[in-house]
Design a protein that fits this description.
Length: about 240
């Protein structure tokens, strides 16, 4: 595992954009896994700028998103499809048919099959929840889990209430790639910023590997780069 330590959120975004931009240039027809949330917004802004400057192109890639709320009306502004459209997909030359989100149909795990048939995820971007979740794999999620519908943890509902008019409006369920689905990605890039993530980062990277801390599975992945700002790294208690 490589841990990149940056001073602040902006440097995290630049570090991540360099890494992801290089991966896109190297394999423009690759399969790229995107995440939503506040953390990757800066990264997406920089990727859009690089596209506008002609440095990278999205027209050959396949994209896979980590998760989506269940129960929001199509096109709802807080849906993750709308988020991606606003922050990245709507601003670059991505082909609409190459955009894929997990779906809460009769068998959500068909998404895993789809990913496999697409060649597997080359690079998966991840954020992390304050409770250690990755995607919407909340504490207690099996390390063997595949794409499925899950109930959101109370802490996640509270954390995400900031995007809705009231906590009551936050969906209670989501469909998420499973831990195993994520772990099958060839490369994982995890971003975290701010003191609110420091505990989760320390537990995921340095604590025991346990399903109570979903992100701790990443310790077993052969190719992970973690990009942290000073505050998010503040509880790691080491120098590497
Ligand atoms: P955030 O969410 O980027 O909005 O902090 C991350 C997550 O919950 O995975």
């Amino acid at each position: 595992m490589i841990i990149g330590r940056c001073g602040d959120y902006e440097s995290v975004s630049i570090f991540a954009a360099d890494l992801v931009g290089r991966a896109i240039s190297k394999k423009p027809h690759g399969v790229f896994g995107f995440a939503t949330g506040s953390t990757p917004e800066g990264l997406y802004k920089l990727l859009v700028a690089r596209y506008q400057h002609g440095e990278i192109s999205f027209d050959q890639m396949t994209t896979i998103n980590l998760d989506e709320y269940v129960g929001l009306p199509p096109g709802h502004e807080q849906s993750y499809a709308a988020f991606m459209q606003q922050h990245l997909f709507g601003q670059v030359n991505i082909r609409p048919e190459s955009i894929h989100f997990p779906e809460a149909g009769p068998d959500p795990s068909e998404f895993d099959e789809f990913i496999r048939n697409a060649g597997g995820i080359d690079l998966q971007i991840l954020g992390i929840g304050a409770n250690g979740h990755i995607g919407f794999n909340e504490p207690g999620s099996s390390f063997h889990s595949r794409t499925r519908v899950v109930s959101l943890a109370e802490s996640t509902i509270r954390d995400n209430a900031r995007f809705f008019d009231s906590p009551d409006d936050v969906p209670r369920e989501a469909v998420t790639m499973g831990i195993r689905t994520i772990m099958n990605a060839r490369k994982i890039v995890l971003l975290a910023s701010g003191a609110g993530k420091a505990d989760a980062v320390a537990r995921c990277l340095r604590g025991p590997q346990t399903e109570e801390v979903p992100g701790s599975c990443l310790q077993a992945h052969p190719n992970v780069t973690v990009i942290l700002d000073h505050a998010a790294a503040s509880k790691l208690n080491d120098k590497n």
